[in-house]
Amino acid sequence: MLLLSLLVAFTLYSATPLVQSHYNWSPSSSSSSPSTFQSEWRPARATYYAATDPRDVVGGACGYGDLERTGYGKATAGLSTVLFDKGQICGACFEVRCVEDLRWCIPGTSIIVTATNFCAPNYGFEVDGGGHCNPPNAHFVLPIEAFEKIAIWKASNMPIQYRRIKCRKEGGVRFTMGGAGIFLSVLVSNVAGAGDIVAAKIKGSRTGWLPMGRNWGQNWHINADLKNQPLSFEITSSDGVTLTSYNVAPKIWNFGQTFEGKQFGS
C-alpha cells in the first residue's frame, strides 16, 4: 500500500510536553459520547500507516511537531484535500467508525481523532485506485494503532463514517513561540471546543491588540518587536467563540518556549 502524505516539519517550532498522550474512544452506540459538533454521519474511507512511519515525529502539515511529545499521541488523522481545507481544519476533532464490512469491522466501536496532517493527492492514480486522497474523495489516514480500534488491519482501505465533534483536551490552550528578531510565529495547539482556530491576536504590555496572520497550519505570525513584554492572546475558533488569555507569557520570554492559557469549553 502506497500512501503519500505531505509532511511539513520545521525545527523552528519545538513544543514542550505538558500532558500525556492518550486515546479517546467510545462505543458508537453509547449515549455518553462527547457532545456532537456535527451530528450528521458522512461517508468516507480510511487507510493506515505503520508504527515505524516517521510522520508522528515530524508532526505533519499542521505544524504540531512531535505528536507524542505534544500530547496528541496516536489519536490523530491525516485528511484528504476536500477535508483538509488548506490547513484550516487543523486541530478539529472527528468521530470515526467502520461500516459496511462485517468481516473486518469491530462492531460497536468508534474512535475520536484530531486532524494533524494532510494526505496529498497522487494524480498518477485514479480516485478509485491508488489515488485514495485525490479529490473528490473524503479520506482519513490513521495510525495503525487507531485503525485497529475499529477494524482488522488486513482490511486496509476501509469504508467508514465520520462526524465532526467538539474536542476535549487536558489543560489549557498552548502557545509555542517561534521566529527570530521582530518576526514572531506562534503555534496554537491543544485546543478544545471546535478545535480549529480561524483568527488570532496578540498584545504586549506596551501595545494594543495586534492581528496575526495564518502562516501555515495553526502557526500564526506577526512582524512586531514584542520582546521584554508580557504577552496576551485572543483566539477565535471556527464556531465563532473567542477566548482571551491575559499575560500568558511573562516579560522575560524566549523563542522555543511554550505557555499555557485558558481553555475553550468542550
Instruction: Give the fraction of residues assigned to helices.
Output: under 10%
Structural class: mainly beta
What is the chains' assembly state? single chain
The total beta strand count reads 15
Strand content: 35-45%
CATH C-level category of the largest domain = Mainly Beta
CATH-scheme architecture of the largest domain: Beta Barrel
Number of contiguous helices: 3
Largest sheet: 8 strands, antiparallel
Shape assignment: elongated
Strand order of the largest sheet: 14-13-10-11-12-9-8-15
The average pLDDT value, as a whole number, equals: 83
CATH homology-level superfamily of the largest domain: RlpA-like domain
| Rg value | 19 Å
String of helices and strands? EEHEHEEEHEEEEEEEEE
Name the poorly predicted regions.
1-36
Gap between N and C termini: 37 Å
- Taken together, the total number of domains comes to 2
CATH topology of the largest domain: Barwin-like endoglucanases
